[in-house]
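Pilot study result, target chain (88 residues):
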Amino acid sequence: MLKDLDETLQLLLSNNLKNDVIDQRGYKISFEPPSQEIEQEGTTINLFLYDIREKVELRSSVRSWDMPMKEKGVSKRVFASTRVDCSY
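Predicted structure:
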């Protein structure tokens, strides 16, 4: 899930910065933790994910059952998705 979120953010930034001044000089999008070593090769947009917290107020205790699989006749219990806040 987090990889999908990173890819979506990268795509959104890449698509929306195409005509901006920053694109003329070139830029890199990074998801690595910040370091003391600063690259001098153009502009870097750093999107380091530093905190993930569950949105407790959106927690649901509802559980459901998947439809039985025809071959095995077995159902499985499905829990509600966990919702989180991601801070970059």
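One observation from the pilot: Residues 2-87 form one domain. A full batch analysis is planned for the follow-on phase.
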